């Protein structure tokens, strides 16, 4: 520091003698910069620039300080002056390019990087920076070429390794992506970006522990690294640790409030745990963000599946799906020619014999979808259909996986095939005629397979209860209760209308023992009060919205000797629900939470409640089947969107339409009347079986329970075999239309008759 003190004293003396020489200001400023006195240096550079308007270095120094302080426009202004004064100044050309990139004026940025490369084509950093512009615009081939040139010029340039890793990740070449990130870290062990990128790769591979370690390492290096915080939050979210995820998201948004994906994930986490403190404001802001993103051609931050429980208009949700469908298509065709397509020989459409059906899913295992569909594949008529299952997730060793593997014609595990085009090619080689997407936009989906059209007819079913918005999905399966004809404009697909509920289940095969009297459980087994009327909802808590919960509280107030039974699904939601109950004047002892139970126990114990209160915004779907199979009556309010009408379809299929209401007010009145209404005479009660006669509630409720129990085996809802026969009629009609070269049209299936 002593030498700097002498240098500063000397520069003061020089300036006192000659304050008209701009070089003196430049030299003095540079000395101050070396000891961290940037404000003092800035004043000197400004004074010097006033004396010498042709001194390029002074303007460059001023621009550099503005850039360091985050004043991008002022930085660019000074860099451009530098370039005007010294057109071959590589540093100024490079910095101008970086400033334009920050402004997202990529055309100008690339122009300046190219000018710099013309001056010195051997400077690797320039090629790397130009590659970043292409990468920002998803121009991966151009970006890759830039990074390859950069690394050929300087194999030790760690940012280029990190950046080309992002390209390889996009190309699904995770091995090379991992290699280049590791090389970047080897060259620069404190390279936080490389650790963050490597965490993203591990997350894609499903290695959450390794991903978390990488993000945490990035944050050790740079505690204010917004993307590392956001990505760490995503890992916590995906592993069910909502509290930790929320903490990470909040920290990331404090650093960078414009991380819209992170904001969307934060809002979703808050909904998952029923934190409704800023719900209305969050929904308004999220809707505006989505609209702005779509108007700018960006992929919306809200995922289509999450939107089920958001109070957004149906038209906006369709637009969301359309954008995600386009993104899947764009991703599918990366590295392929734009005119790529699978070819189907003409004779395929005039062939005699069996139709080849293919089902694609990540859920062939211990998953609700497989629980519902596990007998469907075996019930197909093997004299008319070959049934192939294409699994895009590894074998979980479950009995459900074993069952579907044993009952289909072919079972093909695609989980180890990383490339979408390879997966689609394998499916195409199996000569599939009708390919069915059982995921939609749910976790684990590979919609890119369908975007490549490996089959002539492609159908969406079951996993995602809304339009996929995809021009590569021809049909979706539904029923007229769930999608009335007047709502068809909200779906890009044509509808295959099942004659009853589109929502198939397997209860008649897999849990028929529950119908036996001896299998009944008792309230005491689960700590439930024997003397109270129990309202229940067994959905995941994210399906509850404030308006519905307030209605439930009103019901509890009117039915004094009652309680509400919910699941700890997730556990973190319990405290928030109890807090909301207290705000609505409901004491803590009237809300009962129990743990999630094994599937058969869950269905058995559902019978112990007196009335199931459905969630209108997003109904009980699988849970609706659970409670009806158990014999538990429900009250449901169908709204205008598919996810809010599924329960109505179930109710019509079991032929108990009296369980449907038309408004929240009617919902409340019906629930109260079923609990407190006319109790019946001894003679009327004697007509009921003992298992129902002594239950809580009105005579009407008890008769409704009996009707449900009687209808389980006599109405279409639980007739899996009949459902499959009807579905096969729809498949045949869709296939025949394709063979006749007709465009898809809505198909209405009449009840199958032999």
Mean pLDDT: 94
Could you describe the largest sheet, including whether it forms a barrel? 8 strands, parallel
Cα-to-Cα separation, first versus last residue: 98 Å
* Multimer state: single chain
Beta fraction: 5-15%
Count of DSSP strands = 13
- Give the count of helical stretches: 34
What structural class results from the helix and strand content?
Answer: alpha/beta
Task: Give helix % range.
Answer: 40-55%
The backbone outline, from C-alpha atoms, is globular
Unreliable segments (pLDDT under 50, ≥5 consecutive)?
none
Radius of gyration: 32 Å
Instruction: For the largest sheet, list the strands in their spatial order.
Output: 3-2-1-4-5-6-7-13
Task: Provide structural commentary.
The protein has 754 residues and is of the alpha/beta class. Helices cover 53% and strands 8% of the residues. The chain has 34 helices and 13 strands. An 8-stranded parallel beta sheet has the order 3-2-1-4-5-6-7-13, with helices on one face. Strands 10-9-8-11-12 form a 5-stranded parallel beta sheet, with helices on one face. Helix 3 packs antiparallel against helix 4, helix 9 runs antiparallel to helix 10 and helix 12 packs parallel to helix 14. The termini are far apart. The model has no long low-confidence stretch (mean pLDDT 94).
Topology at a glance:
Blueprint: H1 2-17, H2 22-34, H3 38-51, H4 56-68, H5 72-85, H6 90-102, H7 106-119, H8 124-136, H9 140-153, H10 158-170, H11 174-187, H12 192-204, H13 208-221, H14 226-238, H15 242-255, H16 260-272, H17 279-295, H18 314-332, E1 355-361, H19 368-373, H20 376-379, E2 385-391, H21 399-407, E3 410-413, H22 420-429, E4 434-437, H23 447-451, E5 457-460, E6 475-479, E7 494-498, H24 507-510, E8 533-536, H25 546-558, E9 562-567, H26 573-583, E10 591-594, H27 599-606, E11 611-613, H28 622-630, E12 634-635, H29 646-653, H30 664-676, H31 682-686, H32 690-693, H33 699-711, H34 720-739, E13 747-748
Parallel strand pairs: 1-2, 1-4, 2-3, 4-5, 5-6, 6-7, 7-13, 8-9, 8-11, 9-10, 11-12
Helix pairs in contact: 1-2, 2-3, 3-4, 4-5, 5-6, 6-7, 6-8, 7-8, 8-9, 8-10, 9-10, 10-11, 10-12, 11-12, 12-13, 12-14, 13-14, 14-15, 15-16, 16-17, 25-30, 27-28
């Amino acid at each position: 520091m002593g030498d700097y003190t002498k240098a500063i004293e000397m520069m003061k003396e020089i300036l006192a003698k000659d304050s008209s020489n701009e070089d003196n200001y430049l030299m003095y400023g540079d000395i101050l910069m070396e000891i961290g006195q940037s404000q003092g240096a800035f004043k000197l550079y400004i004074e010097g620039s006033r004396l010498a308007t042709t001194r390029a270095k002074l303007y460059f120094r001023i621009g550099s300080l503005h850039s360091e302080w985050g004043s991008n426009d002022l930085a660019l202004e000074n860099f451009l002056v530098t370039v005007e004064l010294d057109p071959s100044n590589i540093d100024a050309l490079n910095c101008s390019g970086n400033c334009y990139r920050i402004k997202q004026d990529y055309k100008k940025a690339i122009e300046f990087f190219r000018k710099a490369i013309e001056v010195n084509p051997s400077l690797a950093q320039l090629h790397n920076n130009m590659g970043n512009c292409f990468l920002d615009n998803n121009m991966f081939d151009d970006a890759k070429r830039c990074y390859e040139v950069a690394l050929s010029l300087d194999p030790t340039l760690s940012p280029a390794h990190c950046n080309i890793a992002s390209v390889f990740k996009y190309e699904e070449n995770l091995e090379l992506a991992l290699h280049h990130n590791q090389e970047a870290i080897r060259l620069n062990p404190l390279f936080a970006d490389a650790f963050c990128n490597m965490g993203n790769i591990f997350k894609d591979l499903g290695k959450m522990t390794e991903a978390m370690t990488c993000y945490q390492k990035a944050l050790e290096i740079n505690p204010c690294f917004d993307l590392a915080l956001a990505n760490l939050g995503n890992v916590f979210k995906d592993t069910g640790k909502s509290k930790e995820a929320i903490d990470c998201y909040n920290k990331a948004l404090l650093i960078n409030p414009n991380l819209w994906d992170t904001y969307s994930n934060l809002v979703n986490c808050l909904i998952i745990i029923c934190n409704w403190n800023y719900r209305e404001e969050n929904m308004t802001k999220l809707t505006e963000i989505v609209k702005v993103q779509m108007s700018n051609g960006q992929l919306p931050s809200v995922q289509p599946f999450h939107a089920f429980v958001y109070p957004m208009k149906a038209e906006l949700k369709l637009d969301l799906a359309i954008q995600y469908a386009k993104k899947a298509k764009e991703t599918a065709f990366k590295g392929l020619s734009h005119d790529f397509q699978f070819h189907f020989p003409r004779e395929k459409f005039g062939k005699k014999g069996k139709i080849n059906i293919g089902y694609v899913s990540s859920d062939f295992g211990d998953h609700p979808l497989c629980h519902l569909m596990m007998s469907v594949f075996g019930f197909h008529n093997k004299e008319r259909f070959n049934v192939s299952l294409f699994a895009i997730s590894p074998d979980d060793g479950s009995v459900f996986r074993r069952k579907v593997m044993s009952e289909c014609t072919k079972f093909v595990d695609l989980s180890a095939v990383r490339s979408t085009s390879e997966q689609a090619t394998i499916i195409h080689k199996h000569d599939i005629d009708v390919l069915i997407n059982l995921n939609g936009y749910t976790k684990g989906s590979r919609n890119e397979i369908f975007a490549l059209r490996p089959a002539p007819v492609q159908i969406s079913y079951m996993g995602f209860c809304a339009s996929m918005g995809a021009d590569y999905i021809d049909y979706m399966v539904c029923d007229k209760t769930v999608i009335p004809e007047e709502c068809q404009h909200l779906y890009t697909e044509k509808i295959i209308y099942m004659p009853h509920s589109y929502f198939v289940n397997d209860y008649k095969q897999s849990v028929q023992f529950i119908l036996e009297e001896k299998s009944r459980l008792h309230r005491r087994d689960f700590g439930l009060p024997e003397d109270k009327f129990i309202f229940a909802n067994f959905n995941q808590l994210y399906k509850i919205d404030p308006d519905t919960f307030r209605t439930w509280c009103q019901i509890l107030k009117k039915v004094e000797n009652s309680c509400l039974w919910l699941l700890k699904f997730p556990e973190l939601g319990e405290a928030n629900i109890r807090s909301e109950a207290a705000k609505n004047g409901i004491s803590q002892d009237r809300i009962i939470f129990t743990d999630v139970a094994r599937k058969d126990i869950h269905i058995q114990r559902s019978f112990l409640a007196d009335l199931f209160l459905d969630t209108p915004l997003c109904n009980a779907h699988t849970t609706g089947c659970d409670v009806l199979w158990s014999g538990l009556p429900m009250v449901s309010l169908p709204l205008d969107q598919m996810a809010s009408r599924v329960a109505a379809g179930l109710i019509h299929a079991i032929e108990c339409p009296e369980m449907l209401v038309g408004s929240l007010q009617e919902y409340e009145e019906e629930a109260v009347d079923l609990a407190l209404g006319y109790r019946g005479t001894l003679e009327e009660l004697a007509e009921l079986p003992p298992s129902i006669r002594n239950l809580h509630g009105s005579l009407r409720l008890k008769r409704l329970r009996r009707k449900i129990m009687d209808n389980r085996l006599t109405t279409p809802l639980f007739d899996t075999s009949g459902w499959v026969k009807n579905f096969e009629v729809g498949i045949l009609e869709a296939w025949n239309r394709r063979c006749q070269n007709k465009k898809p049209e809505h198909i209405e299936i009449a009840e199958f008759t032999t």
